[in-house]
Amino acid sequence: MRTLRALLRGEGMGFAKAAELNGYPGPKHVLDLADRLKLTPDQRQLVQAIFDRMSTSAKPLGAELVERERVLDQLFQKGESNLDRLARRDGRYR
């Protein structure tokens, strides 16, 4: 799992691992390897735009994940960690 800081910065959550294990790198990795891949300036610009869109979309999701984990941590600290109490806190898990 990524660090909290990485999640809040929109750096992704590591969900691309299956793609990467099968030879499909994510946009951040393509940018990191741009020189070795001999990307043209236009290709770099296109991949950067893809990365920027991904990062922009990932930031609110990362913030939501961090907040939900904070709430879950508080429930465990209060001893309210049984399934019924957790389900009442968030109706989506019923």
What does this structure look like?
It is a single chain. The chain is mainly alpha-helical and 94 residues long. The protein is built from 6 helices and no strands. It has helices at 4-8, 17-21, 27-32, 34-37, 41-77, 83-89. The radius of gyration is 18 Å and the shape is elongated. The two termini are 25 Å apart.
Describe the structure concisely for a colleague.
With 94 residues, the chain is mainly α. It has helices spanning 4-8, 17-21, 27-32, 34-37, 41-77, 83-89.
Secondary-structure map with pairings?
Layout: H1 4-8, H2 17-21, H3 27-32, H4 34-37, H5 41-77, H6 83-89
Give the amount of beta strand, in percent: under 5%
Return residue spans where pLDDT drops below 50 for at least 5 consecutive residues.
none
The dominant shape is elongated
How far is the first residue's CA from the last residue's CA?
25 Å
Quantity of strands, as a count: 0
- Helix amount, in percent? 55-70%
Instruction: Give me the number of helical elements.
Output: 6
Report Rg: 18 Å
Order of helices and strands: HHHHHH
Mean pLDDT: 81
**Global structural class:** mainly alpha
What's the main sheet like?
A: none
